[in-house]
From TrEMBL:
Lineage, broadest ranks: Eukaryota, Viridiplantae, Streptophyta, Embryophyta, Tracheophyta
Organism field: Lupinus albus
Record keywords, A-Z: Coiled coil
Region (Disordered): 1-37, 171-258
Stretches with biased composition (Pro residues): 7-22, 189-219
One Pfam family per UniProt: Myb_DNA-bind_4
Chain segments annotated as coiled-coil in the UniProt record: 273-307
Record has Coiled coil as a keyword: yes
UniProt entry tagged with the keyword Coiled coil: yes
InterPro entries noted in UniProt: Myb_DNA-bind_4, SANT/Myb
Name of the protein in question: Putative transcription factor MYB family
Length: 336
């Protein structure tokens, strides 16, 4: 008889689990290739359309999946070094390849605004579901009613669903990445448990289990409620941490822009003060020259008046002398 064959069977083919992404984004987001030439992009400005917003939400979802895969394989220092600006550059490349011509700063700011609007709508929906008699649903309100309630007026249901899907997927992915660690510790624990002598304990346990039949159904109720609360707390903490990561980058960028604008305004102000002082000095010199010219003109006019009066006095004196001589001549002729 021949023994069983010992040739190993080939392993079954495994399907890739990562989502489909365009090859342009994978090459242009992580590190540029040597053959690709960097092009100057002309970004679109103005209000975001619904299609552009949905493309941004899809890019953020794929970026979260990519970041979770890289953090599980890389060290924390490397992961922290690669986050931030490169992350939003990846989102920009994805949006650019799908027709959304926006920059990474625009994507970051728009995502912050979307999260803020999403939280407002979510809180309002939870309050309206608890008190259905007083508050109506957000989706039945018009723009004027939304503004009166301090709610975002341009939130669309498709955008709301897409953002909630991104946050829920991030929560489930983080839970699945954290679950294998306790499972590994439990796999190594069964050998010491087998050494503990358990045979003498079963005889007294059956009457206890018979006397307490209603206890088992209570256990899942108490175990499900903390699970729901833990999930809600974990989802809230995940959203808060994501908001802190996104807002910290935007805050740093705004602080840099604010510092540069302050420096520019200080330079412009100093230049304006300098030109103002120079103009004041020039105006003072011109006023002094005008005053000197006015004094000279006044002196010349006084001199002309003085000379005229002296000439008039001399003429009057000559005239009186001529009259006197004429009178004397007449008197002499009369005596003869």
């Amino acid at each position: 008889m021949t023994g069983p064959s010992t040739t190993p069977l080939p392993p079954p083919p495994t399907l890739p689990t990562q989502p489909h992404q365009p090859p342009l984004i994978e090459g242009g987001a992580t590190e540029p290739s040597s053959s690709s030439v960097p092009l100057i992009r002309e970004y679109r400005k103005g209000n975001w359309t619904i299609q552009e917003t949905l493309i941004l939400i899809t890019a953020k979802k794929l970026d979260d999946e990519r970041r979770l895969k890289t953090t599980t394989t890389s060290t924390p220092a490397c992961g922290s070094r690669n986050t931030g600006e490169l992350r939003w550059k990846w989102v920009e490349n994805y949006c650019w390849s799908h027709g959304c011509l926006r920059s990474q700063n625009q994507c970051n700011d728009k995502w912050d605004n979307l999260l803020r609007d999403y939280k407002k709508v979510r809180d309002y929906e939870t309050k309206s579901s608890l008190d259905s008699s007083s508050n109506s649903s957000y989706w039945t309100l018009n723009k004027q009613q939304r503004k009166e309630l301090n709610l975002p007026s341009n939130m669309v249901f498709e955008m709301y669903q897409a953002i909630s899907e991104v946050l829920q997927r991030k929560q489930t992915q983080r839970i699945t990445t954290t679950q294998p660690q306790p499972l590994v510790t439990k796999a190594s624990s069964p050998p010491p448990l087998q050494i503990i002598p358990l045979p003498p304990s079963p005889p007294p346990l059956p009457p206890l289990s018979l006397h307490q039949p209603p206890l088992p159904p209570q256990a899942p109720v108490s175990s499900t409620t903390p699970a729901v609360s833990e999930r809600s707390q974990s989802s809230q903490s995940i959203e808060d941490s994501d908001d802190e990561d996104d807002s910290s980058e935007s805050k740093r960028r705004k602080i840099r822009n604010l510092g540069s604008s302050i420096m520019k305004s200080a330079t412009v102000l100093a230049q304006a003060l300098k030109t103002c002082e120079e103009k004041k000095e020039k105006r003072h010199i011109e006023l002094m020259k005008l005053e000197q010219r006015r004094i000279q003109v006044e002196e010349a006019r006084n001199e002309v008046h003085r000379q005229g009066i002296a000439t008039l006095i001399a003429a009057v004196t000559n005239l009186s002398g001529a009259i006197q001589s004429l009178i004397n001549n007449d008197q002499r002729h009369g005596q003869r």
